[in-house]
Each structure stands twice: as structure tokens, then as C-alpha cells.
């Protein structure tokens, strides 16, 4: 693909604009919905911080985590209850919503609440899922699979485009590096920038998949360092999952950023973004 091509920006209705050359948009929230009180606490805290600092914000939470290491892993409240809670957050906080879907039948229902539908990395080659999500007309956060080269994302993008949707973000979340490890190819991110607006999922890039035998480990203490590095490339969005108490999180706690460290991280990455795009 021609590296000089500028991909079309992705705009949400009355919301942020994702553009590699524009101000950074922050997607933040919980890995999975745990309970109503925690969900509202996290959403309201993140919304207030982003508004106070003038940062475009999208709230993220999953109603189901279907791709878990163990049958005993916590998955979430499910489609109906989860979407009802996310609709509450959208109303209470006035923020756009991102959530992920795992089956084609979930796409149209989730799009009634979510402004952005996310296609999980392990499922990004599932044609029926990709086309079902694309046909909703919602913006798409397309996770790059850990096993695909950057250039291969053009094939997944083409499926979305041919299904009538060009409102697609490519989300980098690390590449498999041996067993139980991920690395981030910063040059690979740069190669994908001509394809679409890029979002960097720093949280999942810090995972150690299956590293705790029955669940993922992680390196959450390195969130700030890796986030600064990713934003320094000049991207459209940063994706980070937070938790009020990561040690008690029901899913991916080792990779989560403590809620009380979010504002410090945000100030750092916005300063990097402004310097790169000045």
C-alpha cells in the first residue's frame, strides 16, 4: 500500500474523530463488566478526568469475555444485562461506548447501544463475524491478531469495506513472541498507518497470555512506558483498561492500570502526542 496515502478519519456521531494526524482519542474502561457500582465508579471517574483535561474519550467495557484460558474464568453478565448497564453509562456520563462482540448474532443488538463495535483479535479472520459487524454501520475497532503480519490487515479491512463499512480502526495489541509473551512492533504500527486510523491497546500488549497457567499474567507496572512509546509514533487513539483495584479484578488484573494512576498517565501521553503532532 502506498505509504503516502492518508487514511480517512473515523468520526463518531457527535463524538470524537479518530485521525492519525489529529489529537489523540482515549478509549478507556474495564476489561469486563463486574458489577454495577464498580462500572459506574470507573466510568464516571474516567469521564470527569478526560473532560477536565479536554481529552476526547470513549468508554469501553465488555459484556462477555468468550475467549478465556479456562472454563472457570469469569466472563461477565452476558449480552442483555451487559448492554443494559452500558446504556446506563452512556446516559449518565454522556460518553460514546465501545464493546466487543463474539458472534454474528450479537452485532446488530450491540450496535443499538455501542458507538464502536470491537472485533476481538482471535476472531478477526472470521468472515461471518466481520461482515455482520460491518453491516451494522457502527464504527469498528478491529483488533490485529497476535499471529498476523501488519500487511495482512489489508485483507480484513477489505472484508469490512466490501460489506459497506469504511469506518474502521486498526487496533494494535502486540504480537506473539514464543510462549506466554507478546512484543509490540513499533515499525509495524507505522506500516499500518496508511491503511486506517490506528489505536494502540497498551493493556493487552502487556499481557502474558496463559502466563498464570489458568489465566493471563501481565506487566501492568509498565503501562506508562509502553503507552508513551506507542503514542510517540503518531496514532489516532490509545486504548487502556483500568480497575479500581487490579489485584481484585475478575479478568486481566495483572495488565490493568490502577484507576488512581489514570490521570498521571493521561497527562504524559497527551504531552507526547502534542509534541509529535505539533
Structural description of this entry:
The mean pLDDT is 90. The chain has an 8-stranded parallel beta barrel, surrounded by 5 helices. Strands 1-2 form a two-stranded antiparallel sheet. The longest helix is centred in the N-terminal third of the chain and has 18 residues, at 36-53. The protein is α/β, with parallel strands linked by helices and 278 residues long. Helix 1 runs parallel beside helix 2 (79-93), helix 3 (104-110) runs parallel beside helix 4 (127-135) and helix 4 (127-135) packs across helix 5 (153-162). It has a single domain (10-277), classed as Alpha-Beta Barrel (TIM Barrel), CATH 3.20.20. It starts with 9 loop residues before the first strand and ends with a helix. The protein has helices at residues 36-53, 79-93, 104-110, 127-135, 153-162, 186-192, 202-205, 223-231, 262-277; strands at residues 10-11, 17-18, 25-29, 56-60, 97-100, 116-119, 139-143, 168-172, 175-176, 182-183, 198-201, 207-208, 217-218, 237-243, 257-258.
Amino acid at each position: 500500500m502506498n505509504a503516502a496515502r492518508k487514511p480517512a478519519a473515523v468520526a463518531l456521531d457527535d463524538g470524537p474523530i479518530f485521525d492519525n494526524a489529529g489529537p489523540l482519542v482515549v478509549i478507556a474502561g474495564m476489561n469486563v463488566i463486574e458489577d454495577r457500582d464498580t462500572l459506574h465508579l470507573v466510568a464516571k471517574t474516567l469521564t470527569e478526568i478526560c473532560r477536565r483535561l479536554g481529552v476526547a474519550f470513549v468508554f469501553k467495557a465488555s459484556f462477555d469475555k468468550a475467549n478465556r484460558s479456562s472454563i472457570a474464568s469469569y466472563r461477565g453478565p452476558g449480552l442483555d444485562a451487559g448492554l443494559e448497564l452500558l446504556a446506563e453509562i452512556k446516559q449518565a456520563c454522556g460518553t460514546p461506548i465501545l464493546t466487543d462482540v463474539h458472534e454474528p448474532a450479537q452485532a446488530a443488538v450491540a450496535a443499538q447501544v455501542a458507538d464502536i463495535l470491537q472485533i476481538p483479535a482471535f476472531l478477526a479472520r472470521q468472515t461471518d463475524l466481520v461482515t455482520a459487524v460491518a453491516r451494522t454501520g457502527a464504527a469498528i475497532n478491529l483488533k490485529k491478531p497476535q499471529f498476523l503480519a501488519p500487511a495482512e490487515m489489508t485483507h480484513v479491512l477489505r472484508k469490512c469495506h466490501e460489506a459497506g463499512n469504511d469506518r474502521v480502526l486498526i487496533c494494535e495489541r502486540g504480537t506473539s513472541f514464543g510462549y506466554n509473551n507478546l512484543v509490540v512492533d513499533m515499525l509495524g504500527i507505522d506500516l499500518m498507518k496508511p491503511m486506517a486510523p490506528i489505536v494502540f491497546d497498551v493493556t493487552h500488549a502487556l499481557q502474558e497470555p496463559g502466563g498464570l497457567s489458568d489465566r493471563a499474567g501481565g506487566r501492568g507496572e509498565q503501562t506508562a512506558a509502553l503507552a508513551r512509546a506507542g503514542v510517540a509514533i503518531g496514532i489516532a487513539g490509545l486504548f487502556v483498561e483500568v480497575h479500581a483495584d487490579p489485584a481484585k479484578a475478575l479478568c486481566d488484573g495483572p495488565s490493568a492500570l490502577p484507576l488512581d494512576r489514570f490521570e498521571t498517565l493521561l497527562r504524559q501521553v497527551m504531552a507526547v502526542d502534542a509534541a509529535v503532532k505539533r
